[in-house]
Design a protein that fits this description.
265 residues, mainly beta, Immunoglobulin-like, five-stranded mixed beta sheet, globular
Length: 265
């Protein structure tokens, strides 16, 4: 049975320009221990959704791991209409564009789901993918507009939206079978600026594979750790990453695969 969780993987910028209502944001769930063929539900839930009257963004994922199935609007607090709000022409490539506006300000309680995506797991065992909010200019920028002052929340420039991206891993993750004692996998500091340390308890003679992926699941750093029973540690510098942002650290040993989100700020 796959496990579902919500993990905050974004940096919160506290700025003088931010509204007293806090930063507008969206959350997606994460799933581990999924199997090929599973159909997962990804409700898009709101944070500090106060006096909002327009928004647009792109959602992306790795189509080799997840396959779009359908949209669900029950309940539908924003009266979202598929034909007007969603562009699904690139869904097969792992891209959905979303655009919504209202003539009246909309305020919703935190954790309200405004719609939901159903995705089928098609990736092989050990694969992973993020489902994340982004933009693809010049056609679709990330933008949420709130209040009579037209306060605009962006993706990268302040004031930023508060985002919790989803993550799916296929196969055994964070298990307790012989091999990596994943409950002891530690990353510190996180978020980090110059470097971070990775430590875990190695209780097997099998070689461990440590690698980092970006939000699309692309491997950008990898290192093999030879058998060494007991506590294992390594330091990873920021020069191993292409730029600031959110990534995923993977440690694989035998059939056990542990994942931790990391944030380079």
């Amino acid at each position: 049975m796959f496990k579902r969780s919500y993990v905050l993987v974004a940096i919160v910028w506290l700025l003088p320009l931010a509204s007293s209502f806090g930063q507008v944001g969206f959350t997606l769930p994460s799933y581990s221990n999924t199997n090929t063929g599973d159909v997962l539900d990804f409700p898009v839930k709101v944070v500090n959704f106060d006096s909002v009257f327009s928004m647009q963004y792109v959602m992306r994922w790795d189509p080799q791991v997840l396959e779009f199935q359908s949209l669900d609007h029950v309940p539908n607090p924003l009266a979202i209409v598929d034909s007007l709000c969603f562009n699904l022409t690139q869904a097969g490539q792992g891209i959905i564009r979303f655009r919504w506006f209202s003539t009246l300000y909309k305020t919703l309680p935190n954790e309200t789901a405004i719609y939901s995506l159903k995705m089928k797991v098609v990736g092989a065992n050990g694969s992973s993918s993020s489902l994340y909010f982004t933009e693809l200019p010049p056609v679709t920028y990330f933008e949420v507009v709130r209040g009579a002052s037209n306060q605009i929340f962006n993706l990268n420039l302040p004031p930023q939206a508060l985002l919790t991206n989803g993550q799916v891993t296929v196969g055994m993750v964070d298990g307790f079978e012989p091999g990596l004692a994943s409950s002891s996998l530690l990353v510190y500091p996180n978020p980090f600026s110059t470097s971070f340390s990775v430590t875990y308890e190695n209780v097997s003679v099998e070689e461990a594979r440590v690698y980092i992926t970006d939000l699309l699941g692309k491997i950008i750093f990898e290192e093999k750790k030879y058998p060494n029973l007991g506590r294992v540690g390594m330091e990873i510098a920021n020069v191993q990453l292409p730029g600031k942002g959110t990534y995923f650290l993977h440690v694989v040993q035998g059939d056990v695969h542990a994942v931790r989100p990391i944030v380079y700020q």
